[in-house]
Q: What sequence folds into this?
């Protein structure tokens, strides 16, 4: 079934996403937050919300839109993710979510690139954050469409040491915990299902790696203040297994801008072409 190109340029109806402080805490634990170092993110007394929690409401909030796209989900990869924060995410409440298909590009035998945008507003109607998602449907190409622009290459200055570096050891149970925040794909917990996909064992969610990366940025250059975290755009470039150690590095690239890379303990880059903006 071909991708539904009639959705390009259209928006979904606003959908409410109601959540409480414990869902926020569950997400924090899912991206590795620790009680002794990050109490305000895992305890409701003075609860702060990791900015990358922004990815959690968008999945159910754009469910109808995604379902009507007619993507071949067995061939879909999450290629890139961006969040732009306009204000800190409240620790509990209801967000009104709306998404839209910005474009679908034809990459021929490589598939189709689908660009999806989203936004979340609080109960007062104020814009809290925006998201941008790039999906690759490897079975969706050759429909005669525009190939689209080339992606901007973002890399650290050659030969320059990073301005910050953080190592996070993921647990063997990281994916089993993270999936409770909403992504129940068995690829992340079922060994037999993972084997069908060609993996030696279940893999970690890309958005869990994204969350670990945002966590490192928040603590390293935002003084753990979510109000200073403005945006993070990144491309997923490799597979992470639960138990891997993630090394997140950042290089200053102008006022409030940092080039980001995340690698595993064997030096494989798993998140790159990334740029963070902070206040």
A:
């Amino acid at each position: 079934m071909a991708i539904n190109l009639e959705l390009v340029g259209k928006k979904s109806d606003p959908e409410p996403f109601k959540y409480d402080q414990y869902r926020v805490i569950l997400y924090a634990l899912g991206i590795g937050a620790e009680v002794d170092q990050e109490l305000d993110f895992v305890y409701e007394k003075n609860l702060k919300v990791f900015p990358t929690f922004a990815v959690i409401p968008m999945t159910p909030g754009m469910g109808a839109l995604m379902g009507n796209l007619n993507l071949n989900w067995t061939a879909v990869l999450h290629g890139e993710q961006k969040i732009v924060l306009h204000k800190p995410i409240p620790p509990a409440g209801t967000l009104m979510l709306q998404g839209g298909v910005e474009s679908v590009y034809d990459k021929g035998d490589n598939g189709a690139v689908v660009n999806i945008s989203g936004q979340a507003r609080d109960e007062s109607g104020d814009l809290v954050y925006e998201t941008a998602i790039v999906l690759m449907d490897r079975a969706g190409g050759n429909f005669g469409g525009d190939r689209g622009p080339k992606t901007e290459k973002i890399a650290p200055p050659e030969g320059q040491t990073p301005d910050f570096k953080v190592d996070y050891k993921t647990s063997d149970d990281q994916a089993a915990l993270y999936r409770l925040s909403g992504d129940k794909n068995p690829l992340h917990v079922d060994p037999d299902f993972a084997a069908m996909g060609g993996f030696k064992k279940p893999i970690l969610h890309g958005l869990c790696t994204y969350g670990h990366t945002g966590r490192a940025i928040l603590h390293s250059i935002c003084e753990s203040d979510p109000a200073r975290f403005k945006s993070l755009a990144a491309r997923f470039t490799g597979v992470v297994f639960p138990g891997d150690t993630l090394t997140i590095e950042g290089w200053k690239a102008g006022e409030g801008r940092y080039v980001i890379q995340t690698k595993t303990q064997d030096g494989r880059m798993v998140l790159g072409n990334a740029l963070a903006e902070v206040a």
